[in-house]
């Protein structure tokens, strides 16, 4: 049964009237289970979020961040290894960090997706069955709930799912719904969500893309016309495979695999997930802020209507189609490239090496690629969107650079080791 208070702990009013758990005497509890408890619950979170929310790719990392930050705070509140995320509560030192992690994930997911309660309750029972009964387990459960409630409160009213309209009128260079579905920019709200780490969505907004009449714009468009088309493309089979692979790489699974193979402890694993998910969430928010601000048209529109761009170095192709269906939002910045740059910069900072050693499976191709170094992953993400025909190289490269900058800033403020 879930404990409603921390047994044996003293509570005092913290900021905003929250209860502060006082550190108990005696040695800290061991890091039970290493990475496994966090990995299992982040796997559960990924499955529940996808089944219950059916989120867009842009929304997925925002929801995953809610769970991973609660788990992180629950674990480091016990172990003291790293600075908590926007919190200063501590558990009794005897509390079970594994019970805290499971309880935190369970609480956040149950709050967000009440319809999944039976599945979540069963998963929690399974985790707790592996932890010895007693005061340490009860302390961990109660502290995990406290950590989850804090994150739930932090994210209340953060703008997720709000009604945000794309204000620009269609004209040369400006985004409009694209084939085949001609769907509106329904995820525009992502660019107005309160970030997880940054001070504002526009904190790292880059400068504008090249003008329609510039040589760089023509170079970008011609590269797409040659390499991004559904038919008649100059792509190699390997380049086509890369474009398809990056439609849906499973990064949550890759993080868990990395933690398991490298024998990370529970605190290190919770930090890995929280840092990776929050920086990717903020990268998406930053990219969508730029999409709203600049509103540039997608390649399928630009190539078909190149006779209206005023650039003598471009040529229209009315029947051109991209290899991949074009997502329903503007070109600049590329969300995937911005996330890729942010993720790799965060991981190299967290791991202290350019060797990220990630084995990433693609849900699209069913294949797994091993990325030893961060730069190789970034390179492939950038190229994949061009070979898929859905982003200009400028949108990709500027996105990756923006992601690296915001991650470098976040590393100086969050998830730092405790001296």
Please, could you describe this protein's structure?
The chain is 49% helix and 5% strand. It is mainly α. It has 2 domains: 144 residues, Vanadium-containing Chloroperoxidase, domain 1 (Up-down Bundle); 224 residues, Vanadium-containing Chloroperoxidase, domain 2 (Orthogonal Bundle). Strands 1-2 form a two-stranded antiparallel sheet. Strands 3-4 form a two-stranded antiparallel sheet. A hairpin with a 5-residue loop joins strand 1 and strand 2. Helix 1 runs antiparallel to helix 2, helix 9 crosses helix 13 and helix 11 runs parallel beside helix 13. The chain is elongated. InterPro entries: PAP2/HPO_sf, V-haloperoxidase.
Helical segment count? 13
> For the largest beta sheet, what order do the strands appear in spatially?
1-2
Mean of residue pLDDT values: 92
The CATH architecture of the largest domain is: Orthogonal Bundle
* Shape verdict: elongated
Approximate strand percentage: under 5%
Break the fold down into its secondary structure elements and pairings.
Elements: E1 11-13, E2 19-21, H1 36-53, H2 57-79, H3 97-112, H4 117-128, H5 135-154, H6 215-227, H7 237-245, H8 251-261, H9 266-294, H10 299-304, H11 335-351, E3 355-361, E4 368-373, H12 374-387, H13 393-411
Antiparallel strand pairs: 1-2, 3-4
